[in-house]
User: Fold this.
Amino acid sequence: MRVSNVFLLDGGPGDRFLIDTGHVLERPLLLAGLRASGLSPRELTGVLLTHCHSDHAGNAAYLRRTFGVPIIAHRRDAAILEGFEAAPSLVSRTGDPFARLFCAIENRTRTRVVVDRALEGGESIAGLEVHHVPGHTRGSILFRHVATASLLSGDALLAAVPPLTIVQRMCLPHPDYAISLDDALASLRAFLAKDLPFENLLAGHGRPILGGARARASELLCAA
Ligand SMILES: [Zn+2]
Assistant:
């Protein structure tokens, strides 16, 4: 969509998952996208959230409430989404005026939704491996789609330079939006150290990067 990406993993009836839901302001685009793919939201098996931020989880409560779609997220972000834990405030460290504005908006408009299934990391759902990579948020997840060697990364690894998505290229997490940039980078390093193949990056922001994604991510981390 315009701000955040939503991916549909369609394995047929009973096996249709959205990865993230976009910001509430992008709901018309989300619904139009689903219509274009020939699906009603009622046909979704579940929503898998990469993390709790409102530009990714913003339509989860709507999909659950209106169409009964179950919501799946990591346990650490589920506690925030359900309101049992306060979300850590985002603090702009770089002084970037856009980032400062977006941090203020996120701090004031937290997404709330009931999570039907909480993940720990290590699970496999619909051909996706679940990898817990805390840092951007406490419960950030990478999903590796084994069959297509693709990594669905949310904001743990980006395909556009934040906070806007005008410049499209692979980027490490933005320091202004991470609870801990050190943890986010350590999580990415630990994930790459598992030596699991992936060629394509389907990030939460920016166009898909098809081919060479793992090598590029390693280069970026080496230089960080
Ligand atoms: Zn985020």
Remarks:
- The two ends are 29 Å apart (CA to CA).
- Residues 51, 53, 56, 136, 155, 177 surround zinc ion (CB under 6 Å).
- Residues 62 and 100 are 28 Å apart (CA to CA).
